[in-house]
Amino acid sequence: MSKAKNVVVAQSGGPSPVINSSLLGVLDAVKDFPKTFGTVYAGWHGIEGVLKEELLDMSAQPSEELRLLRTTPAAGAIGTCRYKLKTGQTEDYERIIEVFRAHDVGYFFYNGGNDSMDTANKVAKLAAERGLELVATGVPKTIDNDVGDSEFKLIDHTPGYGSVARYWALIVQNANEENRGACPSDPVLVLQAMGRKIGFIPAAARLADPNREMPLQIYLRESGLTLDALADNVNRQLKADGRCIVVISEGFDVGEIGESKDSFGHTQFSSSGTTVEQTVVNYLNGKGLAARGSARGQVMGTDQRDTAIYASTVDIDEAYEVGRKAVRIAAEEGSGWMSTILREGGSAYRVRYDKVPLEEVANSERSFPEDWIAKDRIDVTDDFVRYARPLMGESWPAVPLAGGLQRFARLGMSFADTKCKPYVPQAYRK
Amino acid sequence: MSKAKNVVVAQSGGPSPVINSSLLGVLDAVKDFPKTFGTVYAGWHGIEGVLKEELLDMSAQPSEELRLLRTTPAAGAIGTCRYKLKTGQTEDYERIIEVFRAHDVGYFFYNGGNDSMDTANKVAKLAAERGLELVATGVPKTIDNDVGDSEFKLIDHTPGYGSVARYWALIVQNANEENRGACPSDPVLVLQAMGRKIGFIPAAARLADPNREMPLQIYLRESGLTLDALADNVNRQLKADGRCIVVISEGFDVGEIGESKDSFGHTQFSSSGTTVEQTVVNYLNGKGLAARGSARGQVMGTDQRDTAIYASTVDIDEAYEVGRKAVRIAAEEGSGWMSTILREGGSAYRVRYDKVPLEEVANSERSFPEDWIAKDRIDVTDDFVRYARPLMGESWPAVPLAGGLQRFARLGMSFADTKCKPYVPQAYRK
Predict the structure, then answer these.
(1) DSSP state of B255
(2) How far is Cα B47 from Cα B11, in angstroms, rounded to an integer?
(3) What's the distance, CA B91 to chain centroid?
(4) How wide is the angle at C-alpha B221 spanned by C-alphas B220 and B222, nearest 5°?
(5) A with B: how many residue pairs have Cβ under 8 Å apart?
(6) CA–CA separation, A155 vs A117, rounded Å?
(7) How far is CA B138 from CA B125, B132, B145, B327, B340, in A?
């Protein structure tokens, strides 16, 4: 391109504790190429902000506020959305091109998972068809670690996962103090983890206890065990240790017993219905425990992806670098890539930043390696520990406090002047 | 007393993040009176350990391990229990005297709430009747802040509360980043707080936002609002701000709608049944929100009382000092007191440590001050903020890490030789 073009950066899907660190990486790196990149806008609440022409001016933000993005969790800074751009939503795609053209946008950085990479790819292709020079670049993000392939060749791990893994390691340590102290009356503690489709999050509970000293059982979605087998395992642990900590995936299949009726007689499911944790706790208490006392449980919720102090310093750094790398790729290699993290060989943990075609990521699918599940199906192997442990880092992140409260970045809400007609996103029309 | 007598320290009820700091205070202060106090034993899992003659030798513990008690949360170090010593359980009371006599115990430090102070008082009285010189002293602890009176004259606040208050302040800050970022799809976030009987814990959510900039609504058990009023409030907030964070007490009265049937047709309640959070989320989603998207929720569980890094440094220090004070009281004033924290007058936060008769604490009852509830019943007043804010402290506690994991105290399991016959606690007999 002959002259500097403006930039849009946007986030998609569920947040992570380090999503803002990637944003900061993009913002910082853009400054290294002043002839390439012009004004940087953020889509306020992701692609919804682009559709609605709500473009937050990031170039106008005070730098001391931007520095705080490093330790500001979740997506409160520029927002995210779950808006799905389906293939048939032609008007939405055309609208994106319209808004980009109106604001002289030549670069689009899209932070998200597999679906977002597919969207970024489609936007870039349509732009080319419509004669708009647009470089679309992906920045990977997901707490589930389900971006890329099962052989870890496209990407080793996704920013966000290391922090959630650290959350689970430290939370299970605390829970072990609780369970060890309270075991005469509450010998079983059931903790439900996120990760509906893939087991990386509950697996990270093992990082709390790599030497296997706790009475800890881990139930991945992939475990293939029944509720009855779970109860037998728990009772065996109670006989041996007098207590048991169960970490279970929200995607664990509890079978028909998981259904529950509310007071209107409706079957309840999912996040607002009966949870796996509740079903398991009720089942254990109904079946009779092999120890005095009862089972208790907790569904860990959005705090696993929005807790600042549990963020991993390694994850914070990598999220930043992967954001920077995306900018370098856009400037030097053109459109259609996602920046990646690849692990170097050798015993010490080292990574390098690389790239992969958006199309390849969009069409890839990762599963939890079967040989990382222990033979008894209620644990993961040391190979998993060797994979995940370095992602946790060694120290607490330096989350600044002011007046005892966490000092998070709070950006000025200064938006670009609108240049297009008002628009209602297709999915929001009646 | 003529010669040094041995000591038993024990914990009762739910733990707190600073319960071990009080234990350390007791252990340290005992060393200041070598002529008074002999060997220190901990009742392993509270009074159950005394009944079963499981007395952990605290004098044999390495001091570097004991130092770690300061930042080790919950009751994993020496255990706690929910065993209730009811008035009629004569055999249990006699057994305690028998075990104390056998081990030459002259001092009993009991860490707990109102009920525990009652128990300590009864044990001391029975000992006197049986001719055993026993000094029983209470160490206050509860996350609910329900020990003492409503005028804060017996005790200003209880160790444990400041840390749970800090947990809520910081967790709500994180949740606000989540909710602000995710609001197009998930505009309502409902967080359920502990405190079945009294509103101090959910009230602490206000500490996250003393200037009232967040769309935060707080529902104490004492609010007296219906589920319908809650839904109206939430919808009003959605119209104004597009999002809403609800912090609600587990003791909030949801009325009949809170009942739910499991797959066997049994009504589900309480910790293992349907929660207030779930009822509220289902109700809001069923009623229709005044914004796109749906309500989500989370029941904060035992992590609010066992999370090391959310502990308040002020609370850690006060818990330690109140443990120390109990020992001084026992040595200098004799039996029948509980150590207390009283707030000094003046604008700067300062406390002094004092004492109150066990009997007076046992017969006292605290309620949440009615004039600290805001007129709209969904907030607390600035007077509450002025009361609770200093308890949070200003900084992160120095929780040591080793290999990336929290380094908690792990005591040697060295028990006193048994001298009495085996005994089954009364409540555990068939």
Answers:
(1) G
(2) 7
(3) 29
(4) 85
(5) 257
(6) 13
(7) 14, 18, 16, 10, 9
Residues in Cβ contact with A295 at an 8 Å cutoff, skipping those fewer than 6 apart? A186, A187, A188, A189, A190, A234, A280, A281, A284, A285, A289, B272
Q: Which is the catalytic residue, given B144, B156, B306, B317?
A: B144
Spatial separation of the C-alpha atoms in residues A69 and A303, rounded to whole Å: 18
Contact B45 A184 (CB under 8 A): yes
- The residue of chain B with its CA nearest to that of A395 is B404
C-alpha B410/C-alpha B415 separation (Å) is 15
- DSSP per position, A20-50: HHHHHHHHHHHTT-TTTEEEEEEETTTHHHH
pLDDT, tens only, A253-269: 988 654 444 444 444 44
Which amino acid belongs to residue B41? Answer: Y
Active site annotation includes A144: yes
Strands A401-402 and A405-406: antiparallel
Contact status, residue A366 vs residue A147, Cβ threshold 8 Å:
yes
* Contact criterion met (CB < 8 Å) for B79 and A181: yes
Tokens of A120: 């970024």
Closest CB to B298 among A176, A295, A303: A303
Q: What is the rounded distance in angstroms from the CA atom of residue A90 to the CA atom of residue A427? A: 12
| Per-residue model confidence as pLDDT tens digits over A386-424 | 999 999 999 999 999 999 999 999 999 999 999 999 999
Burial A55-71 (b: 16+ CB within 10 A, else e): bbbbeebeeeebebbbb
Q: By CA distance, what is A79's nearest residue in B?
A: B181
* Cβ-contact A45, A54 below 8 angstroms: yes
**How many of the other CB atoms lie within 10 Å of CB of B97?**
18
**Which among B81, B59, B93, B107 has a CA at the least distance from the CA of B416?**
B59
- In B242-341, where does DSSP find H-type helix? 276-287, 303-306, 313-333
Cα R_g (chain A), whole angstroms:
23
Q: Give the distance from residue B172's alpha carbon to the nearest chain A alpha carbon, in angstroms.
A: 10
Distance of alpha carbon B309 from alpha carbon A406, whole angstroms: 13
Binary contact (A405, B262; C-beta < 8 A) = no
Read off the pLDDT of residues A345-396 as tens digits, 9 standing for 90 and up.
Answer: 998 999 999 999 999 999 899 999 999 999 999 999 999 999 999 999 999 9
Structure tokens at A27: 């913002």
Distance CA(A58)–CA(A6), nearest Å, equals 11
Whole-model pTM: value is 0.95
Amino acid at the residue B276: V
Find, in chain A, the residue whose alpha carbon is nearest to that of B314. A404
CA distances from residue A69 to A37, A320, B173, B292, B312 in whole angstroms, order as listed = 21, 10, 15, 28, 25
* Interface contact flag, A177 B297, Cβ < 8 Å: no
* Tokens 């910081």 found at: B170
Contact B312, B166 (CB under 8 A): yes
**CA-to-CA distance for B395 and B411, rounded, in angstroms?**
28
Distance, in Å, from the CA atom of B281 to the CA atom of B288, rounded to the nearest integer, reads 11
Query: How high is the pLDDT of residue B153?
Result: 96
Q: A189 Cβ partners below 8 Å, 6+ apart?
A: A175, A178, A179, A243, A244, A245, A246, A295, A296, A297, A298, B302
Question: Is the confidence metric ipTM above 0.90 for this complex?
Answer: yes
Q: Are A226 and A258 in contact, with CB atoms under 8 Å apart?
A: no
Q: Closest Cα to residue A388, out of A158, A219, A66? A: A158
The bridge status of strand B295-299 relative to strand B260-261 is unpaired
For every residue of A46-61, DSSP letters joined together read: THHHHHTT-EEESTTS
Task: Locate the DSSP E strands across B194-273.
Answer: 216-219, 244-249, 260-261, 267-268
